Amino acid sequence: MSTVDVAAVQQQVGQYSETIVGFLRELCAIPSMDSQIGPVGERVQEEMRALGFDETWFDAMGNIVGRIGDGPRILLYDSHIDTVGIGNPDEWDWDPFIGKIEKGRFYARGACDEKGSTPPMIYGLKIAKDLGLLDGWTAYYFGNMEEWCDGIAPHAFVEHEGIRPDFVVIGEPTKMQVYRGHKGRVEIEVTSRGRSAHAASNHLGDNAIYKVLPLIEGVSKLEPQLGDDPFLGHGKITVSDMKVSTPSSTPCPTRRVCLSTAASPLARRPWAPSNRCGRSRRRRCCATAKSRSK
């Protein structure tokens, strides 16, 4: 890689700064909830083409990919362009898709997590190529879905697209610091099954909700027992989702699904030595335990 002329990079970034912010506002204005990233991916593709990327396409999963450079070493910039929902629109004081600028900061749905990383990644790669900093490198931008399918998109990138990066930079917000490791993540789904009965005759039923209450209480008390790591910190665990299945609003629930998410510092060590940029992506592992009433 060529010697970096920091002043030249800063000059180029300053030249494009207003365009980068405008591009981000356009991305945030395009809803991309529930893994529906097609329209926002098309907008990203349009920008990459305008900036002279060598190639851009949608992969088999529907993620947007852009390539710039053709060197033997591979660098991947990963940014998920889907977002969580907005909840009740009436509870917002301003439009979450139009956003607002306050004290020099832009607020909108996805501005931080994680559309905010896409414009600087794309323009950063263009600047790097223009300044000769990508000599010997093939660099990819990867705009993917992550909120509801954590880890599946990078797996598809490697296994289906056949691209195995030497280095990966992930655009998750890290307070403008370079992070080089992440806690591992495990999701455990527990299904409790009961027997339906009318609420007026609940003694004839077997309430599936009551069965998981001890489990929920146990999870709430488990965190102090999780391990510590001098680099990654203390492990975290919480109940993150619950669903009930019942014939109507009056019978005892027949099925209760409880999802618990744990992030443990002992589940994964940092993958990169301290002189490498980027950090590991969380891996997802699900286990299901079921108990059926007799």
Question: Would you write up a description of this structure?
Answer:
The protein is 24% helix and 26% strand. With 294 residues, it is an alpha/beta fold. It has a five-stranded mixed sheet, sandwiched between helices. A four-stranded mixed sheet has the order 11-12-8-13, covered by helices on one side. A two-stranded antiparallel ribbon has the order 4-5. Helix 1 runs antiparallel to helix 3.
Please count the helical segments.
Answer: 5
The strand order across the widest sheet is 1-2-6-3-7
**Fraction of residues in helix:** 10-25%
What's the helix-strand series? HHEEEEEHEHEEHEEEEE
Number of strands: 13
Query: CATH superfamily assignment of the largest domain?
Result: Zn peptidases
**Cα shape:** elongated
CATH class descriptor name of the largest domain: Alpha Beta
Level-2 CATH architecture of the largest domain = 3-Layer(aba) Sandwich
Give the strand content: 25-35%
The total tally of domains equals 2
**CA gyration radius, whole angstroms:** 23 Å
Mean of all residue-level pLDDT scores? 85
Uncertain residue segments: 266-294
How far the N terminus sits from the C terminus, by CA atoms, comes to 67 Å
Q: How would a crystallographer describe the biggest sheet?
A: 5 strands, mixed
| Class from secondary-structure proportions | alpha/beta
CATH topology of the largest domain: Aminopeptidase
